[in-house]
Write a structure and sequence with these properties.
Layout lengths: L4 H23 L2 H8 L3 H14 L20 H14 L3 H12 L5 H10 L14 H4 L30 E2 L9 E2 L12
Antiparallel strand pairs: 1-2
Helix pairs in contact: 1-2, 1-3, 5-6
């Protein structure tokens, strides 16, 4: 079973304390100790100052996260982004356009995506994702034939057919006859 983050922090603090004790008890020289452990002297003195001020807790890793960020996105904008994502399933580009058009908030697409990713909303469930038009509808099939029939019917009525010229029968020009559509004319053979 892997060690927990707390156990890793304790182990790291103990290692740093061993480095500090090595400089005091074994070598008596900070430069040699730092070269032996592969750390810089500024790092050594930082650990030493923290150990003197706070004890063993001072040797634990600290977060490098800033205490405040003045250019962070405001909470009301983040709430609007989350609302649009959860309610309407908009993507980052559509959220950006919506906020610009209706709320006069100018925000980059990448910022919207970063906010969604940070909140775990960057992927929609499979049922809510966009599907291509040809894959939206599945064929209706049943185990037993004739169980239910699905038919798509489209009624098309003619919209003013163009008038057709009378058909002529090939043959003698003098005896040519005309026929209306649907009427059959006799054909004479010439010998």
């Amino acid at each position: 079973m892997p060690p927990s983050p707390q156990q890793r922090q304790d182990r790291q603090a103990q290692h740093r304390l061993a480095v500090l004790r090595h400089a005091d008890e074994v070598t008596g020289n900070v430069a040699l100790t730092c070269r032996y452990y592969g750390i810089s002297r500024t790092c050594f003195y930082k650990w030493q100052r923290r150990y003197e001020d706070e004890g063993l807790d001072g040797l634990r890793d600290r977060s490098s996260k800033p205490h405040h960020c003045p250019h962070a996105t405001e909470d009301d904008v983040v709430n609007k982004i989350v609302y649009l994502r959860q309610r309407y399933h908009f993507g980052p580009m559509k959220i950006k356009m919506y906020l610009k058009r209706y709320h006069d908030i100018d925000i980059a697409c990448s910022a919207v995506y970063r906010i969604l990713k940070k909140l775990g909303l960057n992927r929609l469930p499979a049922s809510q994702r966009y599907q291509r038009h040809d894959k939206r509808y599945t064929r209706y099939e049943k185990q037993l034939p004739g169980n239910r029939v699905q038919i798509d019917v489209k009624f098309i009525e003619p919209i003013g057919l163009p008038e057709q010229a009378p058909a002529t029968v090939p043959g003698d020009r003098a005896t040519s006859q005309t026929a209306t559509p649907g009427e059959v004319l006799p054909v004479h053979r010439h010998r």
